[in-house]
Amino acid sequence: MLKVSLVIVGGGPAGMSAAVAAYKAGVKDILILEREAHLGGILRQCIHNGFGLHKFGEELTGPEYAARYAEQVKELGIPYKVGTMVTKITPDKEITAINSTDGIMHIKADAIILAMGCRERPKGALNIAGSRPSGIYTAGTAQKYVNIKGYMPGKEVVILGSGDIGLIMARRMTLEGAKVKAVCELMPYSGGLARNIEQCLNDFGIPLLLSHTVVQIHGKDRVTGVTIAKVDEQRRPIKETEQYIACDTLLLSCGLLPENELTKGAGIDIDRITGGAVTDQNRQTSVPGVFACGNVLHVHDLVDYVSDEAEIAGCAAADYIAGIESERVDISVRPVNGVRYTVPQRITSAQDTVVYFRVSDVFRDKKIVVRCAENVISSKKKIKLAPGEMETVKLDAKVLAGIGTGEISIGLED
Amino acid sequence: MANIREMTCIICPRGCQLTVEYEGKNVLSVKGNACKRGNDYAVAECTCPTRTLTTTVMTESGEVVAVKSNKAIPKELLFDAMKQINALRVSDSVRQGDVVVANILDTGADIIVTSYIE
Ligand SMILES: Cc1cc2nc3c(=O)[nH]c(=O)nc-3n(C[C@H](O)[C@H](O)[C@H](O)COP(=O)(O)OP(=O)(O)OC[C@H]3O[C@@H](n4cnc5c(N)ncnc54)[C@H](O)[C@@H]3O)c2cc1C
Ligand code: SF4
User: Fold this and answer.
1) Are residues B85 and B44 in the same domain?
2) Residues B35, B58: one domain?
């Protein structure tokens, strides 16, 4: 069996950043395994700009952002295998992978970083009436067709769901000559970034219909139209508001789900809300020596944060391999009052820690309050919070050391 | 007479809600911006709104290569720029950063390759 210090599963931005960070922290025996034919992950098809402002101080497109890391991987000589799919990971960190030149490989690793990314939620279409003609795609699939294969999936488009990928595709298909007739969003607010609503919809006069859904898909072989309707507060369609829109394409942009089959197979604890592993501040999962970062851990809207998180995991994996331990604490982080989840979910060492979280609804003029029992640890004002935008709070090493063992809560207060 | 316009700054993902007071093409005040770039954006929006164009171009052998304008171009020229880029066939040996159209539509912006081609 092949032995490798650090195996990284997935060669997207998370996998590459983690590899570079671990290498710089002293681990030289690394192997990145990537299923696709290239490093870069999903960013290869995200040709729009807006990446890297936070990390590089300039606006890059997805391929350019990915290239910055791919170049570093190559310059440092970090080994990687593309076209290689990991099929199994065991709790004792044995990895099974397969490709066309090596066949089936068994690799024993000292540490593993999971960076498999996420996939699109296909669910949105399930409860829509009508047959399943061709012309229904997830927004990400359409993105791959247009941007990688150079093929337009349709001419007249309705988009269900206002996630960022759907918004980006509304603009992309409009620029390529399609007519995007409407974006329907079930919720009373959009899940996408405000800037994308502005520059992808408003710029082109594409209507965003909040509290609307598609109730029926028409057409036998190919989509010929959809019936949309307004929904009430219980998200039930209101019959009287039904409206027919002729179109040949329906794009579904109903959110992303971390891809964690391998993680579950390794017996790692999964957070029910994020769909990713439960981790500590080092992004170490419930199996010691197995780390997770990027979209496989929780869905990020900004790749810059993916890279930050991957660096944490990469450095921590290096410490783990070197046997370095820091001052231990045992603190669980509990989301309360409008906070849906936090990452990390637990803290095991007293170091300055950034906790990422998402809220469950749109809120205005709230305070983000961190408490330990009744004591307020920190409080910061926010004018606006939305589920589509990830928030952070910083926890101070001294405060964490002071708590030692216990629980802290993060919630919204007036 | 002064008018008020609400807009979302698109310069960075923070997406500040701006309240702009303007008279014709004259911006009198901008509120809600967390940094100076929001002010510049509001002024540009009221005078000559510009956008960075990202799209793809075909190579001679039919591969798809991603490209962008290396500067924002006036919003009303986006579709004309698309037409010109879609009519193009570029060499198969292009690499990231290569210029495929110089000074597109006299905007001063070049269309450059963004795909990472190994
Ligand atoms: C369609 C789509 C569009 C997106 N658009 C944007 C955007 O515009 N802006 C933005 O900031 N974010 C966007 N995101 C989120 C984006 O995924 C992240 O910003 C970033 O790419 C996440 O990096 P990652 O490395 O975690 O995941 P990914 O980029 O998805 O990389 C994961 C990699 O792991 C590989 N992999 C998975 N399973 C295996 C396995 N079993 N064996 C081997 N390799 C495996 C995959 O092939 C992939 O290359 C988008 C996501 C999707 C799905
Ligand atoms: S005003 Fe500044 S911080 Fe706010 S969105 Fe614009 S660029 Fe970003």
Assistant:
1) no
2) no
Centre a 10 Å sphere on the Cβ of residue B52 and count the other Cβ atoms it contains: 19
pLDDT in tens, A337-370: 999 999 999 999 998 999 999 999 989 999 999 9
Q: Is B115 helix (H, G, I), strand (E, B) or coil?
A: coil
A78 confidence band (pLDDT: 50, 70, 90): very high
pLDDT band at A124 (very low <50, low <70, confident <90, very high): low
Instruction: Name the band, by pLDDT with cuts 50, 70 and 90, for residue A157.
Output: very high
Size of interface A-B (CB pairs under 8 A): 81
Q: In this structure, are A206 and A267 located in the same domain?
A: no
Distance between CA A192 and CA A20 in Å, rounded? 30
CA dist., res. A57 & res. A349, Å (int)? 31
- Ligand 1 probe mutation, A7, A17, A303, A356, most atoms within 8 A of CB: A303
CA distance B108 to A369: 49
Phi first, then psi: give them for residue B89, nearest 5 degrees.
Answer: -125, 120
What is the rounded CA–CA span in Å between residue A262 and residue A280?
A: 19
The complex's ipTM works out to 0.89
Mean pLDDT in residue range B47-59: 94
Q: Residue A298: which CATH number? A: 3.50.50.60
Strands, DSSP E only, in A144-299?
A: 156-160, 179-185, 208-210, 212-218, 225-230, 243-246, 249-252, 256-258, 290-292
Tell whether B20 is within 8 A of chain A (Cβ): no
Count of domains forming chain A? 3
Is the pLDDT at A311 greater than 90? The verdict is yes
How many distinct structural domains can be found in chain B? 2
Q: Which of A114-118, A241-245, A287-291, A400-404 has the lowest mean pLDDT?
A: A400-404
Ligand 1 atom with the shortest distance to the CA of A138: 1
Contact between residue A223 and residue A248 where contact means Cβ atoms under 8 Å apart: yes
Q: Which amino acid is at A105?
A: M
Whether ligand 2 lies within 6 angstroms of the CB of B14 is answered as: yes
With an 8 Å Cβ cutoff, are A47 and B54 in contact?
yes
Question: Whose structure tokens read 């093409």?
Answer: B25
Give how far Cα A324 sits from Cα of A73, A315, A321, A403, B56, Å: 25, 11, 8, 22, 48
Q: Which of A43, A49, A300 to mutate to test the pocket of ligand 1 (most atoms within 8 A of CB)?
A: A43
Domain stop point among A325, A350, A378: A325
- Interface residues of A toward B, Cβ cutoff 8 Å, are 38, 40, 44, 47-50, 53, 59, 61, 63-64, 66-67, 70, 146-150, 172, 175-177, 193-195, 197-199, 203, 301-302, 384
* DSSP letters for A189-216: S-SS-HHHIIIIIGGGT--EEETEEEEE
**Residues B34, B7 within the same domain:** yes
| Tokens found for residue A102 | 């090596």
Separation CA B13–CA B34 (nearest Å): 12
Q: Is A37:A82 a contact under the CB 8 Å cutoff?
A: yes
